[in-house]
């Protein structure tokens, strides 16, 4: 059992489930002016379980396709160590995907469609997109942002609209940070024969792409307040997040990707806190 939990990366799954529950809570507070007693606890719990299963399936299928690399770099992982066979890992991933999509289907059609699409994307990422410049970064960004969106999908299309800006901010910030991390890892990636965006177009140009994505996120961040979707606490807190994003942009343009990555990560947490406080 422990080996299968390792395959799932259960702590990572729990964090994803928590993010989805935050998505449910924020969407509920934006859409409804009701006390928390009216909160859809059963649906929220179902969302958390579905996200844990699909995330665990994605981590498992990632290990399935990475077994060659892990045999060299991480021989203690369940598949290279022989604790779980490749076939067992594949069947386990399929079971988790099917179970996660099925639970999402019991919530509503929107949740089911997001779970199905994300499951297919996780397989495609593990098999092909991970080694594809920018598209691999974009897939990680979307999957991160869609965790919040999946929680909001409990309330159907109205929930998706309510969290559209948080989804966009999380997606853009994650893509930018992934590109910055690729800049930081250029030397090792080049030796390993990888083709990342910085290797393909150059460190400086990749920094410009990451900066542009972060600045787009900053530009749209005031929208929930201006559209009366979030309260007065949102604006000053998201302003702090925006300043951290700007600091991250400055760091990457000054050729300090390690510092930039840390600032982007901190800015993402502050932006999430701003949404929670504003809701």
TrEMBL record:
EC number: 2.5.1.42
An example Gene Ontology molecular-function term: geranylgeranylglycerol-phosphate geranylgeranyltransferase activity
EC primary class: transferase
InterPro entries in alphabetical order: DGGGP_synth (IPR023547), Prenyltransferase_related (IPR050475), UbiA_prenyltransferase (IPR000537), UbiA_sf (IPR044878)
Membrane topology type: Multi-pass membrane protein
Keywords (A to Z) from UniProt: Cell membrane, Lipid biosynthesis, Lipid metabolism, Magnesium, Membrane, Phospholipid biosynthesis, Phospholipid metabolism, Transferase, Transmembrane, Transmembrane helix
Localisation per UniProt entry: Cell membrane
One GO BP: glycerophospholipid biosynthetic process
Listed pathway(s): Membrane lipid metabolism; glycerophospholipid metabolism
Pfam family, one: UbiA
Reaction catalyzed: sn-3-O-(geranylgeranyl)glycerol 1-phosphate + (2E,6E,10E)-geranylgeranyl diphosphate = 2,3-bis-O-(geranylgeranyl)-sn-glycerol 1-phosphate + diphosphate
Transmembrane regions: 12-32, 89-122, 134-155, 161-180, 201-221, 233-253
Cofactor(s) the protein requires to work: Mg(2+)
Role description: Prenyltransferase that catalyzes the transfer of the geranylgeranyl moiety of geranylgeranyl diphosphate (GGPP) to the C2 hydroxyl of (S)-3-O-geranylgeranylglyceryl phosphate (GGGP). This reaction is the second ether-bond-formation step in the biosynthesis of archaeal membrane lipids.
Record family assignment: Belongs to the UbiA prenyltransferase family. DGGGP synthase subfamily.
Protein name: Digeranylgeranylglyceryl phosphate synthase
Organism for this UniProt entry: Methanohalophilus mahii (strain ATCC 35705 / DSM 5219 / SLP)
């Amino acid at each position: 059992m422990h080996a299968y939990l390792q395959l799932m990366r259960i702590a990572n799954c729990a964090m994803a489930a928590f993010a989805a529950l935050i998505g449910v809570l924020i969407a509920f507070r934006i859409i409804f002016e009701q006390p928390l007693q009216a909160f859809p606890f059963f649906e929220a719990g179902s969302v958390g379980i579905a996200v844990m299963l699909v995330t665990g399936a994605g981590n498992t299928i990632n290990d399935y396709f990475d077994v060659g690399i892990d045999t060299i770099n991480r021989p203690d992982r369940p598949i290279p160590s022989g604790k779980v066979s490749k076939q067992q890992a594949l069947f386990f991933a399929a079971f988790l995907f099917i179970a996660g999509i099925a639970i999402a289907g019991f919530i509503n059609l929107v949740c089911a469609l997001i779970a199905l699409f994300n499951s297919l994307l996780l397989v495609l990422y593990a098999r092909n997109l991970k080694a594809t410049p920018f598209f691999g970064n974009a897939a990680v960004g979307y999957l991160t942002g869609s965790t919040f969106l999946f929680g909001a999908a409990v309330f159907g299309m109205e929930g998706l609209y309510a969290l559209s800006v948080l989804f966009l901010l999380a997606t853009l910030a994650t893509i930018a940070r992934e590109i910055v991390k690729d800049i930081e890892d250029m030397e090792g990636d080049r030796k390993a024969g990888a083709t990342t965006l910085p290797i393909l177009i150059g460190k400086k140009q990749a920094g410009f792409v990451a900066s542009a994505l972060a600045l787009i996120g900053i530009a749209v961040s005031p929208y929930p307040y201006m559209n009366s979707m979030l309260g007065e606490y949102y604006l000053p807190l998201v302003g702090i997040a925006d300043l951290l994003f700007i600091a991250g942009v400055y760091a990457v343009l000054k050729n300090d990707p390690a510092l930039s990555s840390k600032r982007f990560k901190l800015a993402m947490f502050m932006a999430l806190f701003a949404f929670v406080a504003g809701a």
